[in-house]
């Protein structure tokens, strides 16, 4: 009898365990896998969600495509460590994934080229939110951190403004500019998609607080630039468009645009006062800006429909100018705003008492937000509206 009871009890126990335990295991398991999914989507979000640009394939790119693209960049990092003593037998490097690739007004990247190892460098940026333009290839991102840290050790403040730019983004910028500004203006100030070095993920436009985070000539006058000019190569970067090389690079002086090429090559270029074109003995055959026109858009991978001006009256966007004005985020200008709020409320009564405490609160609040967010529009505007091959501000982008 007793044995039987025990047996029954045991069966009941097992049943209870199954009833309670199974759902726990199932729910737990589901939770685990959904967390795993979440983690992997987060991982790919940084490099994945912008780049779906197979629709702009040009098919006749000059580049040999790389099937195992991911590892190629890394392997050339090791090769970079060997000192470069001359460029006698150098072969023009047009492999998109190579850290020493040459991209210029005559050498374009495939429209579907997206670096496989894009990450956000651990440095200060002029914007606080996530944006594609914060991305750089891994080795360039690490070197950038070293560069910025070294600058900081010297009491200097460098700040990232615009790094990676996808083909799609450049396509948007270019076609929008053609629509709103016309072809002549656009080819002067805006790179044709595929020809921007920013698509390599190895270039970045940088600035500093004293230049108001702008990417224009004023950066050349800062202490930061003076230091950068003679130290960037120690970290693998070069000033890509120097003042005295404009006829070879095809770009006007861009003190803010630096390009990662690895330490060995950067050192060689610096010590021999060469730009990348000279190193590869690349001779420009034509003034690229004169080549593209409304009749040959398709040769450059541009769909003519995308630059068709709508029949409506031209809607010139006056936004840039108003946006710039708020940038000097001065506290005094803020004060009027709070005084409005109290006036509204007490309308009938005496407003005097309420006014005093409110402003203090409101004022403290605003500046906190201002520095990061107010700055943003400025580079954004420069970047999008008038971007030469690289990230130029319209004012000085006059190419030779
Ligand atoms: Zn640039």
From TrEMBL:
Domain (D-alanyl-D-alanine carboxypeptidase-like core): residue spans on this chain: 134-263
GO molecular function: carboxypeptidase activity
Chain positions covered by the region annotation Disordered: 57-88, 302-400
GO biological process: proteolysis
Pfam name, any one: VanY
Database matches in InterPro entries: DD-CPase-like (IPR052179), VanY-like_core_dom (IPR003709), VanY/YodJ_core_dom (IPR058193), Zn_M74/Hedgehog-like (IPR009045)
UniProt KW keywords: Carboxypeptidase, Hydrolase, Protease
Basic and acidic residues bias spans: 57-73
Segments of skewed composition (Low complexity): 326-344, 352-400
Protein name in the entry: LD-carboxypeptidase LdcB, LAS superfamily
Organism phylogeny: Bacteria, Bacillati, Bacillota, Clostridia, Lachnospirales
